[in-house]
Specification:
The protein is α+β, with helices and mostly antiparallel strands. It has a single domain, classed as DHBP synthase (Alpha-Beta Complex), CATH 3.90.870. About 30% of the residues lie in helices and about 20% in strands. It contains 11 helices and 15 strands. A hairpin with a 4-residue loop joins strand 10 (about 170) and strand 11. Helix 3 (about 60-70) crosses helix 6 (about 185-195). It is globular, with a radius of gyration of 20 Å.
Length: about 350
Amino acid sequence: MATASETLQNNSRDILRSPHYEGNILRFEGKNIQLDKGIWEFEHEGQVNKLDTYSIWSPSHHEEIAERLKNGDRAAAFIMGNFGVVEVRRPEVKEHDPMFETIKRRPRSQNFVAFTNPDDIIDLVDVDRLPLELKQLRWAGARHDIYPDGPLHAVFPLKKNAEVDPGVVRQPEHTLAAFWIPGHWGYEELGNKLRKKVKRGLLGGGSLNVNGEDPSYTSKELYAAFMKNPEWQKEIDFILFDEIAEAARIGRSQTMLSFAEFPPKILRVGSISPEAIEMNIGVPISFEPERIGIDKKYTASSKTKYNRRNNEMSDKRVSDVMAQIERYREFYNSRMHGEVKAPFVSSRRVGHHAV
């Protein structure tokens, strides 16, 4: 372990991630993991606004982050490709909703997604509306198996009277997009702490960008976006880095796959290609490649064009970063085990991914 001043002085990339950081770092495979809380400072109209910064890979702060989210704070978080904005979305209609009106600036009809463990949506999925071939998704184990080895928005039919925030409900289909990253033990651990604190509500959000603009794919881009949108400095309370995933340069938002019909249907192409998903989960999926390049809504935001070469590159980067995350778990446990109560493990289910 070293201090930031000792290790970061010649690393401009990491200095941009947290310009005023003076704390400890953990060096892992060429990446500097921020172990302590940092600060981002912004000056606007004579005022200095400060936002706390954390790393998802410093588990000692997971409890504090979960408590802040429970208490209503919002986070700009790097989530496997780009920065998003998340908060606990509770099942009440808000007269004023900063997530829609101030941060994203888009109509409420363009819903957010729920960032949730497949174990936690058992009371939300409308089993009666699941296709006959997918009835087994009533079981948590089957829901885990439909997630590939990487991030995915899985869309499920939502119970009519489900107690959820209207902002995460997809209309008119009345479905729920449940985002998850199997094997990302940083978000798994944070989610485990949050689920113990929040009984009514889901962690929800979307990419951090003004409607119609691109999200930030790097910390440097995020800092510039905060400068361009000073209202974010008041509406967003802290930053959550993922140094491992950011360094992978995935450069795409995530794929969305609906399980409200059979075969499962691609609603949006993203960081994991339809071909890779189909091979990974073991069932055929419905995909309309002719819409790529014509229908903007059919592809997630991306730094690169959607073509075979770039899609394969994105698949590889996602696969590589998930393997690296597993190596970091082993590395962290071996280096820091004396400072934590128990070694960190991943809840990723190993086996044949067949629906």
